[in-house]
Design brief:
The protein folds into two domains: 7-138, Hexapeptide repeat proteins (UDP N-Acetylglucosamine Acyltransferase, domain 1, 3 Solenoid); 197-249, Up-down Bundle (Udp N-acetylglucosamine O-acyltransferase, Domain 2), CATH 1.20.1180. 16% of the residues lie in helices and 27% in strands. The protein contains four helices and 27 strands. The chain has helices at residues 193-198, 203-217, 223-231, 238-249; strands at residues 7-8, 13-14, 19-20, 25-26, 30-32, 37-38, 43-44, 48-50, 55-56, 61-64, 77-80, 85-86, 91-93, 102-105, 110-111, 116-117, 122-123, 128-129, 134-135, 140-141, 146-147, 152-153, 158-159, 164-165, 170-171, 179-182, 187-191. It has a ten-stranded mixed beta sheet. Strands 1-4-7-10-13-16-19-22-25 form a nine-stranded parallel beta sheet, with no helix packed on it. Strand 26 and strand 27 form a beta hairpin. The longest helix has 15 residues, at 203-217. It is elongated, with a radius of gyration of 20 Å.
Length: 256
């Protein structure tokens, strides 16, 4: 299952049925889980752990040193979950000591060509990154988020679960969960209704989230005033509770 022209460091650990294509390089302190397929011309450097059933296409570069001038060769890590599809020219950087020394990618994600995930990012599960979407350092992306092509997320920002960005969106602030956003800089354009319906959100939850959106973005209330009203909706809709918690935890502020 290992092409004779692949280069595998003796310190790498490969699971069962791992395939590695020609001219790929697997470095020391790399662990690759069972049934993962790695195409030709892929580079994986360590310390890196990649889970099971991943597909990594040609010219991807995973686990290279972070693009951070403060990085001084410390032994930082990259962790990738299971069943991810990682297309051509995707780059994932390892973490830095200022970010708990770890970049973490979840499971069941699709990363299209030329996506970049910088050092210390935390990406959840079931996300989609369209071509050339880029995360600066220390970015967090929630489950089921969809980033349109050429989306750019500034360092230390958070992208909430179940939101969707339009093509060429740029954000310097946090994007709350459930939103549909677009523009440079990002502006809200309602809820990601299609995504919520596809993922089985009930009609009652969606209607309550619509009401919450109007309070947050259409009422003219100051943020603290809007939060006070949103808290009144939490007992009937846990999703509103998640929205409130996200906003309260924001350090960069939310798009608004």
């Amino acid at each position: 299952m290992i092409h004779p022209q692949a280069i595998i460091d003796p310190g790498a650990r490969l699971g069962k049925n791992v395939q590695v294509g020609p001219f790929s390089v697997i470095g020391a302190d790399v662990e690759i889980g069972d049934d993962t397929w790695i195409g030709p011309h892929v580079v994986v450097n360590g310390p890196t752990r990649i889970g099971r059933h991943n597909k990594i296409y040609q010219f991807a570069s995973l686990g290279e040193a972070p693009q951070d001038l403060k990085y001084a060769g410390e032994p930082t890590r990259l962790e990738v979950g299971d069943r991810n599809v990682i297309r051509e020219y995707v780059t994932f950087s390892r973490g830095t000591v200022t970010g708990h020394s770890l970049t973490r990618i979840g499971s069941d994600n699709l990363f299209m060509a030329y996506v970049h995930v910088a050092h210390d990012c935390q990406v959840g599960d079931h996300t989609v990154f369209a071509n050339c979407a880029t995360l600066g350092g220390h970015v967090t992306v929630g489950d089921h988020a969809v980033l349109g092509g050429f989306t750019g997320v500034h360092q230390f920002c958070r992208v909430g679960a179940h939101c969707m960005t339009g093509v060429a969106t740029v954000t310097f602030k946090d994007i709350p969960p459930y939103l549909l956003v677009y523009g440079n800089t990002a502006q809200p354009y309602g809820l990601n209704l299609r995504g919520l319906k596809r993922r089985g959100f009930s009609e009652d939850s969606i209607e309550t989230l619509k009401h919450a959106y109007k309070i947050l973005y259409r009422s003219g209330l100051r943020l603290e005033e809007a939060l006070a009203q949103l808290r009144g909706l939490e007992p009937q809709c846990p999703e509103v509770g998640a929205l409130v918690a996200f906003i309260v935890a924001s350090e960069r502020g939310i798009i608004r």
